[in-house]
Write a structure and sequence with these properties.
The chain has 332 residues and is an alpha+beta fold. It has a domain of 105 residues: CO dehydrogenase flavoprotein, C-terminal domain (Enolase-like, domain 1). It is built from 12 helices and 12 strands. The chain has a 5-stranded antiparallel β-sheet with strand order 4-5-8-6-7. Strands 9-10-11-12 form a 4-stranded antiparallel β-sheet. Helix 10 runs antiparallel to helix 11 and helix 11 runs antiparallel to helix 12. The longest helix has 18 residues. Bound molecules: flavin-adenine dinucleotide and iron/sulfur cluster (SF4). The site of iron/sulfur cluster has 14 residues, from loops.
Amino acid sequence: MKAFAYVNATSEREAVAALKFDGIALPLAGGQDLLARMKDYIDSPDRVVNVKNALDATVTATPDGGLKIGGAMKVVDLAEHAQVAKLYPAVAAAAIEIGTPQIRNQATVGGNINQRPRCWYYRNEEFVCYKKGGSRCFAVNGENQYHAIFGNDGPSHIVHPSSLAVPFLAYGAKFRVLGPNGEREIAAAEYFTMPTLQNVMKENVLADEELLTHVILPAPGNVKSGHYEVRYKASHDWPLVFATIVLALGGTSGNTIRSARVVLGAVAPVPWRSKAAEDALAGKPLNEQTAALAGEAAVKEAKPMSGNAYKIQITRTAVKRAIMNAAGIKTA
Ligand SMILES: Cc1cc2nc3c(=O)[nH]c(=O)nc-3n(C[C@H](O)[C@H](O)[C@H](O)COP(=O)(O)OP(=O)(O)OC[C@H]3O[C@@H](n4cnc5c(N)ncnc54)[C@H](O)[C@@H]3O)c2cc1C
Ligand code: SF4
């Protein structure tokens, strides 16, 4: 690892000031991603700014009945927070599946959302692909079994690595961001960016000197939500595909789906909202047949790469089971 200067910031403003630096400065939270990148020479910052003592690590209630989650909150604390589990069960369900107990005990919410891709070419120093300033994507003609099946126009074909981003987007979260010019709030749906030749070295709209300080979740209202992950290994790995579903119900029986949010994870360079699945759910009764139709609709526009068509069936199943999970119908 290259030698670097270390700043232990004690307030969010101090952290932001330390990131404004003539050289490469990167925030360090739980270090579960950044330290590995530094050890593997994927990133060699001149300055590392510890933000764990600078950012909020708590959950507070907002006046509208929602919750505000601090960026330095540990994933384990999020997973075990009673109000989070009550109001946003899919967030708690995603958090408890992340990595291992050791990883959840170090990793933070802000670090999880801003972690960099897991593409094996990106993670190998020898492969200088688009994401590292090169001029090609090695996954196109290479090993792409864990890559995208949606949004595959390139130039990069990563899947977004954050498990928390998906339920946050499904519940309509906003991210509070602080930079040298002050703060701003960005809808989670607008935070993550599809790759273009101009922005391919980033996965979101955060500027280099900005920090994600809070996740703000609106009051959930009268919704039912479900989350379902398909994993190759039960632990110590990322999901192959996962889905969060948030359903607003109504009608005389209270069981008609008025509107739905269907967000898929590990299938595209961003948390992927499936409009086709949402349209398939609107106006239908919440039952297994509807869940299966939505699963089918979700994969209609999939464009797999040479080695990942198997993800289509998994996506179909994840959507169906997340909906059944929301409905309280048992799945195998
Ligand atoms: C074996 C293994 C399995 C894993 N499985 C999963 C999984 O299933 N799901 C999943 O989501 N993740 C998984 N992870 C990844 C892990 O959860 C993330 O690396 C971790 O959440 C990152 O959080 P951190 O606080 O450690 O971030 P750090 O490593 O400290 O930072 C991550 C990145 O975010 C930046 N950053 C940190 N905080 C902020 C902030 N507040 N604002 C802006 N930028 C910031 C850093 O500069 C860095 O680039 C796994 C990791 C391992 C090793
Ligand atoms: S998918 Fe993205 S990160 Fe992976 S090799 Fe292609 S450009 Fe690089």
